[in-house]
Specification:
about 55 residues; mainly alpha; 2 helices; rod-shaped
Length: about 55
């Protein structure tokens, strides 16, 4: 029984799980921000290229 109690204490004291979850959440937010930025830049660049192509014709 003491072996079980010590393993439960060790599990509760360990911070590996919550740290991994925090890193996963931060990574997800960074990916969403990057995708949003790339999409916005791509749309703006496409609009500019279309405008230039129209003015050249």
């Amino acid at each position: 029984m003491s072996k079980f109690a010590s393993s439960v204490k060790r599990f509760l004291a360990s911070e590996d799980g919550p740290t991994a979850v925090e890193y996963a959440v931060m990574l997800g937010l960074i990916v969403v921000a990057c995708v949003t930025a790339v999409t916005s830049i791509g749309t703006n660049a496409s609009t500019q290229f279309d405008s230039i192509a129209t003015s050249l014709q």
